[in-house]
Amino acid sequence: xxxxxxxxxxxxxxxxxxxxxxxxxxxxxxxxxxxxxxxxxxxxxxxxxxxxxxxxxxxxxxxxxxxxxxxxxxxxxxxxxxxxxxxxxxxxxxxxxxxxxxxxxxxxxxxxxxxxxxxxxxxxxxxxxxxxxxxxxxxx
Length: 140
Prior knowledge:
This protein is α+β, with helices and mostly antiparallel strands. The chain has helices at about 15-20, 25-40, 90-95, 120-135; strands at about 10, 45, 50-55, 55-60, 65-70, 70-75, 80-85, 105, 110. Helix 2 (about 25-40) packs across helix 4 (about 120-135) and helix 3 packs antiparallel against helix 4. The chain starts with 7 loop residues before the first strand and ends with a helix.
């Protein structure tokens, strides 16, 4: 059986951010921590060794694979900052058009720094992602 590696844990979010090598990335991580906390109303939790997540939901795919994941989150990685939003949300693409300088994968949106993006659009992306996931995976 597949074991999910990215689980919520009790590691310190602040200690994780303090360990970020780049001073600018560390500063951006604190700014994102404030934005995500204020926007979601959830406390930040570590998910796995490097994702700061907010809230959680339980998913179950048609394949039978299931698990828990944060509703939204971010990770100040070495190369870029990864932002985690819902996959499959049709409204995400429209919001990303006015988001600012970024690249997007299936699950992540990557930015170099917070100054490159529109913080109001970030808040919309956070709220849209949470709303989409809570509709798609209602709590039993």
